[in-house]
Amino acid sequence: MNKKKNASGQYGKGFTLVELMVGMVVSMVVVLGMVGVYQTVSRNASEVSLGTKIDSQIFSGMLTVDRILQGAGFGVLNGPPDFPNAYGAVFVAYTEDLSEYVLGSTAAARSIVWSAVGGGCNALVSDASGLRYFGPDGYSCSNLSMPGVGVPSTSLVQRLSAVGFENVGVFEFRVRNEPCSPFAIDAPTVVEGSYIIEILATVFGGDRAAGNVVRNQVCLINYK
Q1: d(CA 67, CA 218)
Q2: Most Cβ neighbours (<10 Å): which of 107, 133, 204, 215?
Q3: Is 31 a member of any domain?
Q4: Total domains present in the chain
């Protein structure tokens, strides 16, 4: 260090140019590190906030699907009495590649189609855009076919293509043929159905190792 006389005539210590430059570099490294931390925290906070909003939409969609499926088959006149062997006749599920879902399979379906009141079909379809409901008025169909392009629908859950959200909002369905009652109520006056649909939805929050999947079961009380 160079020694310089101050105003009182005493020698004081100053900094060399090299020391000043080293100090500036260290300060810049610290500041850049703090900026990086802030950006990471801000990004994570935004992601969590967005994920929470999407999950809220998914849970709402799950409740809506439950309500829709409980009404499936009610008032339909174009099926056998009490719908014996209803699967494949008045309602059916389809896998992602649009092949017919095998009843009771451990694989999952992406769409469910059923006969609508007054003719035609209703459908729930989970695809790249999200979960859509084609109803309640129904669309023109033959042999429980999937809705075509341009058929009006209601968006229940919208999906995002952002990194980390690719599978969030995906709905899947499994169908079983077994006696059931709505809300698992066991009473003599409760009307039983013969088909159960398990609904699975991928959410943002939760245990990522477990796939972040939430489940619900619906008894199709109008199919015997």
Answers
A1: 9
A2: 204
A3: no
A4: 1
At 68, give phi and psi (nearest 5°). Answer: -60, -45
Residue type at 60?
Answer: S
The structure's pTM equals 0.75
**Domain hosting residue 113, numbered range:** 37-219
Residue 113 lies in a domain: yes
pLDDT above 90: residue 93: yes
Q: Which amino acid is at 206?
A: G
- Is 181 part of a structural domain of the chain? yes
Phi/psi at 197 (nearest 5 deg)?
Answer: -110, 120
DSSP state of 101: P
Among 68-82, 116-130, 198-212, the minimum mean pLDDT is found in: 68-82
Name residue, tokens 């499936």: 72
Count of beta carbons in the 10 Å neighbourhood of residue 187: 6
In the structure encoding, which two tokens stand for residue 59, read together?
């849970």
Phi (first) and psi of residue 112, to 5 degrees: -130, 130
Q: How many CB atoms lie within 10 A of CB 68?
A: 19
Residue 28 CA, chain-centre distance (Å), reads: 43
Strands (E), 64-170: 91-94, 111-115, 121-127, 130-139, 154-158
